[in-house]
Write a structure and sequence with these properties.
Length: 421
């Protein structure tokens, strides 16, 4: 017996006006990511035989889920093809969750699901992963994407970069597709300097200042989201840390005013002086300033993927202003090459250790209440190059995450309607 997909609506940059009732509750939740992250209104109902009570959100879980998902994918893909103005250039996005990072690439084409590396869905049970999430069978999900790609005439690729949690792998894939779809529909200059979104962001006058003193440090940090990249004044007493935050602020088009008087004598090792407390406390304060300045994050773009290069180094940062702080990275091999970030630590009075660089990133992310995945695609000729490349990619991602998306009209980019934890 076939599945009937009815009351199907697909609307660009507007609400569909009808609910999503597929008959599998978790599937409904995943399709709702199109509404929140693609800003494409989607609504539909699925009927099958005498199982027509749409208020029973999992009424069709007992039927053939692969066929159901394929039917939904086919009809939804047709509606997208008819309704949405797909761009011609490939669109790529990665969605960062705390236990998953999935990449999605989509482009106009033959309608082929080119690659799909999401299974296994998580690490439990060992070697198998999740067979169901809620009442949705994970084995059925691929049939949805394959059918949608075919009927929408989109070539689609899914690559699991990281993933230990089955729920988050699936959620990351739907959000990554949604964001990639949005970028496929958008004009190229939407996030440029002096764009309408950029001007609206600067007009908010967002800034925050923190002054804190402990037995270890005395810090003043002032962060201004003012669209300027040449007014930062940073003095931490640690040259590499100054360089790191200067590069980050420049790419973020923000102004950082940082002054720190710290206990640079702690752990004195002769010519070298360790700066654990200074590096940590500065990063904490910068993260806290960002959290205060960004406020509720309503109306912001929230999520972005950015790449940077420094010499041979190539790094990507995927960021989500999620209020669920988490840092994941693959920098350990590079940071493990030597003890200090500085190429010639012996000639520097205040070098920064590689282990402290990781702590800097962690303190910034935790206090900035963001989810961040850092992927080193190519190592630099030096540790210093990789670190500066990371700072630049981080700043680029932060700039667009923190920008206003005027289409959202102040609403939070979330299917829950809020980022409160």
């Amino acid at each position: 017996m076939s599945y009937q997909v009815q009351n199907l609506k697909v609307v660009n940059e507007a609400k569909a006006g009808v609910p999503i009732h597929t008959g599998i509750g978790f599937f409904d939740h995943m399709l709702d990511q199109f509404n929140s992250h693609a800003q494409v209104g989607v609504g539909l109902e699925v009927l099958h035989g005498d199982l027509t009570d749409v208020d029973d959100r999992s009424r069709l879980a007992v039927t053939s889920q692969a066929d159901l998902c394929s039917s939904v994918g086919e009809e939804l893909g047709k509606a997208m093809k008819e309704t949405l103005p797909f761009g011609t250039s490939p669109s790529r996005f990665c969605c960062p969750l705390d236990e998953a990072l999935v990449e999605c690439v989509i482009q106009n084409g033959e309608g082929v699901l080119i690659d799909y590396t999401l299974p296994p869905y998580g690490i439990f049970p060992k070697g198998k992963g999740r067979s169901k999430i809620g009442s949705l069978e994970t084995a059925a999900i691929e049939s949805f994407w394959r059918a949608l790609a075919k009927s929408a005439k989109l070539d689609v690729t899914f690559l699991k970069i990281r993933g230990e949690n089955g729920h988050h792998i699936v959620e990351s894939s739907f959000k990554a597709f949604s964001r990639a779809l949005r970028n496929l529909l958008d004009v190229d200059h939407l996030w440029d300097a002096n764009s309408d979104n950029d001007k609206a962001s600067i007009a908010l006058g967002r800034e925050a200042k923190i002054e804190r003193s402990t037995k270890e440090t005395s810090i003043s940090v002032h962060v201004l989201l003012n669209g300027k990249n040449d007014e930062s004044k940073i003095n931490t007493g640690i040259p590499v840390l100054d360089e790191f935050f200067t590069a980050l602020a420049q790419e973020a088009m923000m102004t950082f005013k940082i002054d720190c008087q710290g206990d640079l004598w702690v752990d004195d090792v002769g010519v070298l002086q360790e700066q654990h407390h200074t590096a940590e406390d500065v990063s904490i304060a910068v993260g806290q300033c960002l959290t205060q300045a960004l406020g509720t994050k309503g109306g912001l773009n929230r999520m972005w993927l950015a790449a940077a290069g420094e010499g041979k180094a190539k790094v990507e940062v995927t960021m989500d202003l999620s209020n669920r702080p988490c840092l994941r990275h693959n920098l350990h091999d590079t940071l493990g090459v030597q003890e200090y970030v500085d190429d010639d630590a012996q000639s520097t009075s205040c070098p920064l250790s590689c282990e402290m660089l990781e702590h800097v990133l962690d303190s910034l992310v935790m206090n900035g209440r963001m989810t961040v995945h850092i992927v080193e695609n190519e190592p630099g000729a030096s540790v210093h190059d990789t670190v500066m490349c990371t700072a630049k990619a981080f700043g680029k991602a932060l700039r667009i995450c923190s920008m206003v998306d005027q289409r959202r009209a102040g609403q939070t980019a979330s299917s829950k309607g809020t980022l409160s934890v």
